[in-house]
Amino acid sequence: MLTPEHLHALHNLPLAARQAAEGLLHGHHLSRRKGAGMEFSQYRPYQPGDDLRRLDWRLAARSDRYYIRESEVETSLTVHLVLDATASMNHRDDNGLSKLDYSRLLCAALAYVATQQGDAVALTILHPSGLQHLPPRADARQLSRLYHALENVQAAGKFPDTTTLAPLTARRQPALLICVSDLYEEDEEIGRLLTRLRAAGGEVLILHLLARNEVEFTYRGAVTFEDLETGHTLQLDADQQRQAWQQQMQDWLRTTASQARRQGFDYYQMNTAAPLDQAMREFLRLRTKMV
């Protein structure tokens, strides 16, 4: 599995998405269910109550036995990617990637995998100036639309207010919703949004994205930190504060994970140095459960 740095260095989002997903999808076939679809799968013996229209009369005439033609139809669902594009996503890790850079790669790879599974994919970018929304489609051009939107997104400002989010929460379409965010919020606004979206139907997977340097606190000496969304600054000695920072970070992460799961969300934590495959596996696990 290629590292995020190598994928980002390609400067080609479609290629990066395909490269990230290629190994994962090798040998992984579309989920299918038996039914009265168009693609023939196999015969099975007739059982009382079976639809006689699916009985193969020619085979019965030749063998004097009754068989039902089973076919396979692809199971699919709507996958709704929700990307947090607030200013905190501009935070950059030691590997040079910002959270937004990583999120572009992650959303593109997830969209590619979902499309390969036959799913309709939607994308909503959360931005204080308004929502950018691509409705769910399963046609051949949807990936190009998604890649274009992801390539052009810029992170800025704070989390959108309730009025801005209203069109998103008004939609009631069952889907597997995947939220990519660092979950930095002022008053649980992200949790409230996800709760409303889950009430609309389907499942919610939170991909909680953090930079490794903020989790491990790799900074040294005197450092000035700036809150990217409020502009507030804080000066401290990183070596003196490392242990306290790490303890508070771990406490927050445990609380965040516990609250998310208590609300019925699937929660997965990842950092900007991690390969993308685990997030894609988590998606496939949930998808299998839903279809």
Automatic annotation (TrEMBL):
InterPro entries: DUF58, vWFA_dom_sf. Pfam families: DUF58 (PF01882). Residues 42-250 form the DUF58 domain. SUPFAM superfamilies: vWA-like. This is DUF58 domain-containing protein.
